[in-house]
Fold these 4 entries.
Entry 1:
Amino acid sequence: MTILMVALALAAAGLFFRWCEHGRNRRLPPGSMGWPYIGETLKLYTENPNSFFSTRRKRYGKIFKSHILGCPCVMISSPEAAKMVLASKAHLFKPTYPQSKERLIGPAALFFHQGHYHSLLKRLVAASFSPSAIRGSVASVQTIALKLLSSWEHATSPICTLLQMKKYAFEVAMMSVLGGEAEVETEGIRCLYGELEKGYNSMAVDIPGSRFYKAMKVRKALNERLMKIIERRRGKGGGGGLLGNMLRVEAGELTDSQIADNIIGVIFAAHDTTATVLTWLLKYLHDNPNLLQAVAAEQEGIARKLQLEGERGLTWDDTRDMSLTARVIQETLRSASIVSFTFREAVEDVELEGYVIPKGWKVLPLFRSIHHTSDFFPRPHKFDPSRFEVSPRPYTYMPFGNGLHSCPGSEFAKLEMLVLLHHLITTYRWRVVGEEDAIQYGPFPVPKGGLPIHVTHQSRRWEKDSTSFSSISQ
Ligand code: HEM
């Protein structure tokens, strides 16, 4: 017993000594490392991230150290430092993700890589989601939006906005990845993916019964289904969507397993993000009735045009005529800042704004903090889309990241939101049910309970030969 106590005391002293070493003889940024090992993890994940960042920013400045998820880290909230980490010196900061996410998504997904392999995949994904590639997909996105909205009409109780938006974003992501070609495995993939994502925020403990273990089993089953699709598509020259583009790269450049990891990767990147932003859009529009009215006027003008032109569907060009709605989306991305920060790791000791970031330390550009700085966005707590009538200063607005690993799906995500908003706003009204201002974090900030809403259909009565119209609530 005594020996055990002595051993424990020595181990604790060693840990404490190493802890103190961090701060010695180096110009580390100011800040608190919290408790040994736990650091400030609990504070970051239980407090409102706005207050976590703003109290430290006030106390220490735009760059400060902390210790989260078992790693020493430096948090940065100046545009200049963000530029250096994400773009100008990106080669010194490699992307890093929790192990559970890397293993469940698949280690060959592009987020986890740098160099040639990353650029090959980034080129493929960016080409599949560029404006010229996605302009032809408006009709398919619209079909998915209309199917979702019509399913709401029969709801007798409030619906959970987040869950509904997840359905929508998942289906749109599958369509963009597989190219809209019907595959017998699609439904199975949908069910399995729902199980897989439950493991994303678990600890990577691979023992029977653990959440991670269950999710890994699901990941294997998902792989088998993807492999069947990949094999069939290889025999047919690739087909459409991102999958087709990945299958057509030079023989031998991508293995089936790398392709499967990237399919899961893109679904992961496209799904929860877009669904969460759509949920916030409904919340902000609901809370700002005058703005909703102005957005409705913009959308109804377009709906009327479609009707006068023979009840045609939306096109890419129509979505370019939605300038106010587009600014509402921009402001939602700023205000909600659902990707609060990202993770990088210093590959060597790096000098940053007069401080040293030691090799192996994590570096977190704090997007949310920058988006809520009054120097860049006056009265940052006010929801005000008109601020985007002028372009923001470089590196002050990064809802889709920036630099080498910036989001290749940003235009597609915005298109998806514009199409859904068009049909929602011109045909339905919604009312938020219950506790209106609470937020839950899991991992993205989202209105509590996923924003339960009550939806009513409204039919439109157009007054032909006039520019005005009226709507009747049913
Ligand atoms: C509103 C929705 C979305 C938001 C807020 C969002 C945000 C982001 C952010 C902040 C990053 C950079 C992460 C970093 O630097 O570590 C990123 C990367 C990425 N996003 Fe998105 N994203 C959205 C939708 C999409 C969609 C629809 C796709 C589908 C193609 C997509 C695919 C990706 C991919 C593949 C990456 C990794 C890029 C790389 O590592 O080079 N995202 N996204």
Entry 2:
Amino acid sequence: MALNARLDHRNPLVFDTHELGRRPGALQRLTRTVDAPRDLGIKEVVGVPEGTPVELDLRLESVMEGVLVTGTARAKAEGECVRCLEPLELELEADFQEMFSYPDADDRGRVIAEPGDDAEDDEDRLFIEDGLFDLEPVLRDAVVLALPMQPVCQEDCPGLCSECGARLADDPDHHHDAVDIRWAALQGLAGTMKDGEKDEMSGAEPGVDEKQEK
Ligand SMILES: [Zn+2]
Ligand SMILES: [Zn+2]
């Protein structure tokens, strides 16, 4: 977690834990609707457009080493069907749970170094800073996990016609005179078979029949 910038309590994704008062067991529930930050989702596949409302339901629980945050995010995501390329919209519901540690305590509540002193160890840990925590990285991870990697407009989307690119869901009876073409091709093939049959039969490539030496 980047600790270079101080958390700004005016950022809608920054939450204040002061009300919990560092009393283990204290609980706080809150809901907040925020504008989706940029690039919330799976890049170029499906995501929540920037500025779209994201409803957050949070439960903050004070524990020894920090604040355990459990919550759900709901929003509308937009993308494109991977089969037929039509734009699609889906209701996203992403659950998450994350521990935000007090910077001066480890998992057992023991005092440890300040965050940032050992970047390796602290890399995956999230901290409370001045009583505030930033939900954004948690929200991002949860949204990506909750979104389909291969979104489809409908479970059985038939995709596009391989011959002309038409969207088959719009036109279930769509077909080309492929049968006739194939039939003609077969007939053509039958003709050449007759002519070339002999060659085909005796035309095994030299070498194929030879025993392979080991
Ligand atoms: Zn589709
Ligand atoms: Zn077609």
Entry 3:
Amino acid sequence: MPDVKSKKDILQIEAGEDSLWADFGQVERLTLSLTQTYTHTLGRYSRFFIELENQRFMATRCGRCQRVYAPPRPLCPDCLCPTYWVELAGTGTVQTFSVQHFSPGSNADVAALKTPYVFAYVLLDGASTLFPHLLIADPAQVTVGMRVRVHYVQQPVEHPIHLIHFIPVE
Ligand SMILES: [Zn+2]
């Protein structure tokens, strides 16, 4: 006899004998998977990701107001001037953070995260803006003001943003 391959549960909903829905109390719930392949361009931000493979952390600077954008912005939002690339050392300070108890599992890089993990907003040395990313550290040890640095991973990743995460500076 053929079987349904997807994960399924059969639930019984409360329905009194006199209810109109007494014959419809049994509910089958299916868990299905959806896989979608698509092409996505990193556009004018591409050099940031390309240089991560060379273990270089790039930002952009506005030639007019001198603000340094990390993550990079091709255009200064204040001056509306095109920016230019600058390299940062990759060290910085935690400005705020949250402890995550759920991983969305949207790709293999994220699905591999063990919860709880720390998501931090870091002001990189030389930058004017906050860079949000994963901080691999004991959540109980993380504080605002903690010194961190960019760490480059060695294993292959699905998306180049996962070539890096932050770690505490020893
Ligand atoms: Zn500017």
Entry 4:
Amino acid sequence: MSRETLRVLFVEDNPQDVEIVRRMLGRYKRAEFKVDSVASAEECLEALNGNSFDLLLLDYNLPGEDGLGFLRRMKGNATIPPVIMLTGEGDERVATEAMRWGAYDYFPKNSISSEILGQAIHQALEKFRLADQLEDAEQVIFALAAAAEAKDPTTQDHLQRMQRYAVQIGQALGLDKHQLMLLRYGGILHDIGKIGVSEAILCKPSPLTEVEWEEIRQHPIIGERICAPLKFSHEVGPIIRHHHERWDGQGYPDLLSGEEIPFLARVISVVDAFDAMSSNRPYRKALPLDETVRRLSHGAGTQWGPDVTQVFLDLLRSQGLGDRGDRQRGPGRHGGEGRTGGTRAPHEEHAAPGRHRSDRASAEKPARAGKWNGGIRRG
Ligand SMILES: [Fe+2]
């Protein structure tokens, strides 16, 4: 079987070290290495421009910008191949810093051998390719979220607003950067499971049957499953799964109540309801802000977590939220004035039939059509 040929660029100003590494990799059995070398960070950039390398071996001590400075400068640059840092000093600080700035591995030069270096290169390439595949998976999943949104004509630009509102309330709650990122992803992905719900149900203007409700109730579970390949799925999955739980335990899919509901799912739930109430629908105009506030206040402690709802209401009163006023004046995608004043019960004003914990195994209750439940939507 022929060996894989890998192109390595060694950034090293000492020609003797270049020769040693070249000989080491020449003895490695599992791959054939073509090793080019340059003597500085700047020469490295020139060499990368127009040439394709599988991996960079980067010396720490370089004339001009050192290896760490180069790594820092190149962090996030997609044109840079995976990097393994080499140094003459056994300095832990350099190792930690190198990994922090994106190096795949780190070795003091006096510790490497043909086998160690060859294997390290293989492992770095494996990690790099895996990360690449995961990024591809993420792009597919975010495209699916947009496709799911497109299935429901009542939710024009819902995802854009959701992520914006989610971040605003997250900031008001004093969440850190990572949690804000999770909220933004939750805002984008919470309804991705609608891709598995029939369009006829999502768009049905009349009350849903119990069987149809059961299909709707699957969307958080489907959504969590779709997002399982994401590298942050263990943190975003619970937001997706639990965004229709209610504080009083009457939501779905798991009938969680109170603080059993993951905190970020509680945040998304309030924001989702606000967007539903303050958007035009085919069968009604957006609710006025004072009515939206009244309904959110009324549902705090039953449908939504009281603390999160209070922070959101304070935010609404002090800042308003983005383009809300404009959307209230204009018609929705299918929401021309002629169709907005009807008496048909709107989707999100149907209460999803509640299921008490004791009802889990029993037959479903019929939908309480027409009764405002504080903003539960079909999706
Ligand atoms: Fe939903």
